[in-house]
Design brief:
The protein is mainly alpha-helical and 171 residues long. It is 83% helix and 0% strand. The longest helix has 31 residues. The protein is rod-shaped and about 95 Å long.
Length: 171
């Protein structure tokens, strides 16, 4: 772009300094307009869909952790098990489209893209945490888990905001 501007400037002789200054001011105004268009009016966020998808997975994990914490108080109620499955399904249903979006972004931007790789790692971490939460739930359902329940309650109380915070950070 600078080469084109240089050739255009050298192509036309300017008879006086006033005309040259006027052309320079018009060039500067055009440059500022281009900057305004690209930075303010025409903002592109190529990684926004993948960031939002991964953040939604973390929000679903926060809801699941909060639901598990409530489940500790209502262990005897059979209807709550179905409610808990809804939250598991919520995590799975947000995780699958997120994986598709993140992998599409990775394909478009390339494996060298730091942000695309970051989204892949975050999604993998979320899925590993989901597996660990399912294992924790299974352990809490055991008959001999009574001594662990206060510790599980404290852990789940701390986990819900810990998952919500990265979701806000990722977006």
């Amino acid at each position: 772009l600078t080469t084109v501007v240089l050739f255009l400037a050298l192509d036309r002789p300017w008879p006086d300094a006033a005309q040259a200054l006027g052309a320079a001011l018009l060039f500067a105004a055009g440059s500022l307009w281009a900057v305004l268009l690209t930075l303010v009016m025409w903002r592109l966020h190529p990684y926004r869909p993948s960031r939002r998808a991964v953040a939604e997975v973390f929000r679903a994990l926060a809801r699941l952790a909060d639901d598990l914490r409530l489940w500790l108080y209502q262990r005897e109620k059979s209807g709550f098990d179905a409610h808990l499955r809804l939250h598991r399904r919520d995590v799975r249903e947000t995780s699958e489209p997120a994986r598709v979006i993140v992998l599409d972004t990775l394909r478009q931007r390339g494996a060298q893209s730091f942000r695309a790789a970051q989204s892949v790692l975050r999604l993998e971490a979320a899925e590993q945490v989901f597996g660990a939460m399912i294992a924790l739930e299974d352990r809490m359902e055991d008959e001999d888990a009574a001594p662990l329940l206060p510790l599980c309650h404290r852990l789940l109380r701390l986990l819900a905001p810990r998952f919500a915070r990265p979701a806000a950070y990722i977006v």
